[in-house]
Each structure stands twice: as structure tokens, then as C-alpha cells.
Specification:
This is Haloacid dehalogenase. 49% of the residues lie in helices and 11% in strands. By secondary structure, it is α/β, with parallel strands linked by helices. Helix 2 packs across helix 3 and helix 2 crosses helix 5.
Length: 223
């Protein structure tokens, strides 16, 4: 990989279609438990609660902690039963099969020809290593919340990334990540993905692109 500019990507929105992968896992659980809801409905109940649980962590704890609290809350909101702790392991076990967005497998190597490509993600190292994206990035720049000791969108995770690895460009899709990176002073490229919109009250990135194929040029344009 290149030893040039460090470019980090968010893992579960910019690189991986987490809603498709997670919904499939929850669909399996819905059939197992006989739930009257779809896998998509369960994912859509769990995912924002998981993000909120990470945001509300006063100090870092392993990914499964906030994820489990969010799953319990999602089950309560939907009025469904199950074994949240066991069901979470089913979700985790499905993560290696969560699909990359269609442009990633061909587009990311092109970025890596010119820049050091990593991730900046709210995930534990072992979970990252099992994903389909792990083989496409520089593991020295796998900046997980476990490694940095804090969850996004707290400003400290972005600060620690810069302190440890120098000036970087972050590629994000979710509103909280775009806003968090920009408000921390990190040049940010928004990679448009279905289901993600900008925070209407937040700062606007200089560049927005539709594919990882366009990221290298956007990084160069940032200077």
C-alpha cells in the first residue's frame, strides 16, 4: 500500500451495506422466534438505538455492551420476545457475510494506489478483522473505537486519530460521522449511500462523491 496521505473510511456505512447484512440476520431471528415483524423493522429499531448507546458511553466499553442494551430496547419498542444476548451473537456471527457496497471491491484498491487506506470505526478489532472490508485496508490504520478508546461522534476519537497517525482525510456517509469529523477539524469527504443524509443543522463537507472510485480525486483536490 501507498505511504502517502492517510484516508480513513467509516466501516459500516461507507464501505459495508450494514442494513442489508443486519436485516438478513434479524430475518433469521424473526423466523426462529416467530416474530410478526420483518428483519428490516428490527434492524431499523436497533441501529439508531445502538448509535445512541455508543454516543452515551461515558468511557469506552466493548462493542457488545452498548449493542446489547440497544437490542433490549429495540425488542421492548417492538413488543417482541427473544434472548437478546444470544441473538446478539447471531448478529455478530453474521457480520463476515455483510456485503460491501458494489463499488468498494474495485474502487478501494484504486484509492490505495495513491494513499494509505484505513478505517475509523465504532467497532472492536476482532469484529473489523472478520468483515469483508478487512482485506482491502491497511491494518496499521485500522482505527477502531477499541484501539482509540472512545466512540464516535465524540471529538476525542477524531483527535486521537490525528495525534497518532497525523493529518488525515475521513470518508464518511452517516450524518453523525460527517458532522463529528468536520467539527473536529478533519477534512471530510461525504460518500453518498442509500439511507444516509447530512445533518441539516451541521457543517457541510467540501466534497461529496457517489463512489469510492471518485475518492482519490477528491482527496487530491483537497490538497
Amino acid at each position: 500500500m501507498s505511504t502517502g496521505q492517510v484516508v480513513t473510511f467509516d466501516l459500516f456505512s461507507a464501505l459495508i451495506d450494514s442494513r442489508t447484512g443486519g436485516s438478513a440476520a434479524f430475518a433469521t431471528l424473526a423466523r426462529r422466534h416467530g416474530w410478526p415483524v420483518t428483519g428490516e423493522q428490527v434492524y431499523d429499531a436497533w441501529d439508531p438505538r445502538n448509535k445512541a448507546a455508543q454516543r452515551d458511553c461515558p468511557t469506552w466499553e466493548p462493542w457488545r455492551g452498548p449493542a446489547l442494551r440497544a437490542l433490549v430496547a429495540a425488542y421492548d419498542a417492538l413488543g417482541i420476545g427473544g434472548d437478546p444476548a444470544r441473538d446478539l451473537e447471531t448478529l455478530v456471527g453474521s457480520m463476515p457475510g455483510w456485503p460491501l457496497w458494489p463499488d468498494v471491491a474495485t474502487g478501494l484498491p484504486g484509492v490505495a494506489e495513491r494513499h494509505r487506506v484505513g478505517v475509523l470505526s465504532n467497532v472492536d478489532g476482532a469484529l473489523f478483522a472478520a468483515t469483508a472490508a478487512a482485506g482491502l485496508v491497511d491494518h496499521d490504520v485500522a482505527l477502531t473505537s477499541e484501539r482509540l478508546g472512545v466512540y464516535k461522534p465524540h471529538a476525542e476519537i477524531y483527535r486521537r486519530a490525528v495525534v497518532g497517525w497525523g493529518p488525515l482525510v475521513h470518508v464518511a456517509s452517516s450524518a453523525r460521522d460527517v458532522r463529528g469529523a468536520l467539527e473536529s477539524g478533519i477534512p471530510t469527504i461525504r460518500l453518498r449511500r442509500p439511507g444516509h443524509e447530512l445533518d441539516p443543522d451541521g457543517p457541510r463537507p467540501t466534497h461529496e462523491v457517489a463512489s469510492t472510485v471518485d475518492v482519490a480525486a477528491a482527496v487530491s483536490d483537497l490538497g
